[in-house]
Write the structure tokens for this entry.
Amino acid sequence: MGIRDILVNGPLGFGTAPLGNMFRAIPDHEAAATVDAAWEHGTRFFDTAPMYGAGLAEIRLGRYLAQHDRDDYVLSTKVGRLVLDEVDTDEHDPRCSSSGGPTVSSMTTRKKVH
């Protein structure tokens, strides 16, 4: 079985960057309703990444998809970037916030242990 046999709507998918508040802040219930509307219209291919809202898009999508069988959808994500509490380097991605929130980096990392 090929990937096109799995995708109900053909090659179109749902890109989740907006679920990570990319264009505007959206509440959780609106994010869930958006994914639900895509699902109800037959979308079964979802694309996400840790960079979308420092992991927020993955969390929101995961909450919704957890109620469905894993074989019922195709999930695409990216690798190479980690969302962590602390980065063990002096080099930081200048696009990341310095407000104390999660840091996104592809450098060597160390998780803070309490």
Q: What stands out?
A: Helices lie at 3-6, 28-40, 56-65. DSSP finds three helices and five strands in the chain. Residues 80-114 form one domain.
